[in-house]
Amino acid sequence: MASPARRNGSEQEEPTHRPPLLQMQGTSFTTQANALLRKNLTFQKRNKKTNGCIITIPFFLCLLLFGLQTGINAIFSGSEYKCGCQCVRTSTSGCEEECGVEYSSASQAVFCPIDSPPKWPAFLQVPAPQYRAVAKEGTDLPSASCRDVGSCPVSFLYTAQNRSFAEGMVPFFFQMSNFNLSDPLLLSDLTPGSSSWTFSSNFIEPAILSPGDSYAILPNCSSFSNGIPFSFSLGSESVNTDIKCAEPSFLWRESYNLVNDDLYKGFRGGNPRNEINEISAAYDFGSTSAKKFDVTIAFNATYKNDTGESPPGLVRVSRSMNLAAQAFLRMLQGADAKLPLWFIAEMPKVETQLKLDFASLLGPLFFMWVIQLLLPVIMTYLVYEKQYRLRIMMKMHGLGDGPYWLISYGYFLVLSIVYMFCFILFGSLIGLKFFRLNSYSLQVVFYFIYLNLQIACGFLASTIFSNVRTATVIGYMYVFGFGLLGNFLFEYFVQDQSFSEGAIFAMELLPGFSLYRGLLEFSQYAFIGNYKGTSGIQWSNLNDPENGLKTVMSIMAVEWLLFLLIAFYLDQVVVSGSGLKKDPLFFLKGILGRNKGSKRTPSFKVANSQIKIDLQKQDIGHERESVERALSHSGPPHAIVCDEIRKVYPGRDGNPPKFAVKGLSLAIPRGECFGMLGPNGAGKTTSISMMTGLLAPTSGTIYIEGLDIQENVDKIYSCMGVCPQHDLLWETLTGREHLLFYGRLKNLKGAELSNAVDASLRSVNLFNGGVGDKRSGKYSGGMKRRLSVAISLIGDPKVVYMDEPSTGLDPASRSNLWDVVREAKRNRAIILTTHSMEEAEILCDRLGIFVDGELQCIGNSKELKSRYGGSYVFSIKTDQSEEGRVMDMVQRLSPNARRVYNLSGTQKFEVPKLDVRIADIFRAVEHAKREFSIQAWGFADTTLEDVFIKVARDVKDTEQ
């Protein structure tokens, strides 16, 4: 007898006995990998149009960028984007063309060569009058009324450790001196200031072009109330204007924190009302003394116009530095001491032409979309195999997880490499600087690392999703969403120097942002390289302070391995279409020991009082005894042994638990076909799912050829064949290709494989007429069913499960299929479910009827009919007026007879066999014919269908 722990306890302990082991030789890793590789290559050959479309996406995108780049280049080749030349009259008649900034139009000047750049005064950046700082709630700033007349002073803040020393320097910042206004460079004596925006170079000083925005910073402007007259020549043009006078105002602050607070509040956006109250500059003299000059200057490097835009430009900071140094010198040496800053000048430059590398400018966004388009493809492929149970179908026929991961990963890697190779090749051939200027070896390494990370992400995502449509939608949302976030958010953070590097690093932990950062580096280096005529990013640039490529490559490499391990782990321990889940600590099995690593706790505890066991059913009791003998090795070997397996689904939403299978004990020897009968929802498919490893039993144990299916499922699959209830086929593969694949998984090779495939096709009538070489997607439902049966039997499996194999077959095909199953059961155990009683009687050596998750009876067809069919069925048809006389006749034959059907004169009776003899029935009918009209009558023994109906009805009546 079974141990109490296995019989009654809710905990599942390791059994003390198990059936004898059959020496099974599974296929090797290489054989499985070879079979899957051949199948995948054939599958991809059938999908060459789809793969071709994927490969051509980079080509069309590069072609689009090339067209846009060509159009932009055509625009920039016009004369307005080249250096302008002007005719300058000489002493002789005629003219001579000279080119340069002095002679060019404003739009052409920036492209001209400048051998000797002009010299400009160093201006101090000052706020415009309407933006200068004024008093707010009792501060020491001037009254706001000065803005009405434009007389607000230019404010400067200062602080120091030695206040008296700093206050001594303040009067020496701005002093009146003799000056000559005939030379622009002598504006240096006036301490010139300007509120105009700067340009990106100093070839032209905007303060000279807009003298109305220029100021002379003087301590007393009362002498220059009408402005300071100023005239100079700009090329051939004469400029006459008046420079405004602005008085400086120095304000003391106790600490630099207070200085910084005032600067921030005065800056645009630094206060709730978004008011501008700008300070020109601030000086922190720190530890400055007579023997030491220590100064920190704060200034606004992001002057904005009234629309809030900040044009790119240089920083006017040299004059601020000169003023501080000169004030320090004058305080120590006297007011006459000078530290002149006469001018500033740009470096000479050659003639340039405007260039805009459109591909590099838009590269991060568009190229990110192109590269990530492979992610939804990978996810769709993997989730498709899981959703339609193709993965578990392959697994149940012997394909291990190792070969599956290796071949699938290798296929996606090859596809990704070809995809990126075409991407780089197309881009380079059509001349995109994004590819040509950057180091090819660096690009290859970067893309290789990311492609592997992307494949790992695809495998990881496939463990989460179980529906293809959901996975596809989420995949494309990820692709386009991260592209837009990278372009409009992440890039802004990267370029913002004030943004935390730690926060950027945290964002780069997301693979989408890592890819975008790498593409951004390639793009920026290529853009600058194209503009300057130099190369793009090289290996030597990885150590540049602001280059983040090295960091993201390291992040992606680590995540690649980490995500791959997590994906494999989740694939093993999460039930999502790939079979039985493993123990969460399965990788420690060798360390913890066999018993500790394999001990399982049922997912749902079953109370004994909830399971009703009818001990009066002798056939069920004998079957349990057979199970005990099989477990103790005292009987003949059995291929399948189910020891009290149960499946209970926990109750939800207030509903009670669902008992799908209530303690099934079954022992099936080799050479027997066992039929499982029962109404829909009786638990047949659930039982087979547990026997094939699709579901884990709540309690109980299943042994296949002596191996526990939850411990040795991979070994068991090598000797198993399955014909599922629904055909699990690849639509693009032919019937022959299906059988070749599954035959290789069963270790068939060469001529043996070819002969086995041909024999299988012939056995199910798919050989003649080339039917076996047609794609299964073009098969009818019956042809697919026959192919599924052939797949389950190829390779001589020791155990075969057939779930309603004849569904949808015509009578001829069904009869042929029965011949195949009868031939196949000679040396293997077969479990078959069906709703055809005829099929069950013909094929099955024993039958078990399931009702309400429980095995109600078991035995061969004759035993069941004898046990549950102790009645004859007597049918008779007469006029409706004669029904009473028929009833009297039957009652005389058998008082225990029961009428089970009555409609318009047609009646059917169950007559106990012990009450009558067949001759009595014939004599009674012949006598009745002389008394009333009998249109038709019949007398039959109980059928299997009657038994089925009776058992189901009895169980239902008992429950009620």
Automatic annotation (TrEMBL):
Biological source species: Adiantum capillus-veneris
Sequence ranges of Basic and acidic residues compositional bias: 8-17
Protein name: ABC transporter domain-containing protein
Organism domain of life: Eukaryota
GO MF annotations in UniProt: ABC-type transporter activity; ATP binding; ATP hydrolysis activity; lipid transporter activity
Keyword presence, Membrane: yes
Keywords: ATP-binding, Chloroplast, Membrane, Nucleotide-binding, Plastid, Transmembrane, Transmembrane helix
Family: Belongs to the ABC transporter superfamily. ABCA family. CPR flippase (TC 3.A.1.211) subfamily.
InterPro entries: AAA+_ATPase, ABC2_TM, ABC_transporter-like_ATP-bd, ABC_transporter-like_CS, ABCA, P-loop_NTPase
GO cellular component, one term: membrane
Transmembrane residue ranges: 53-76, 361-384, 404-432, 444-466, 473-494, 552-570
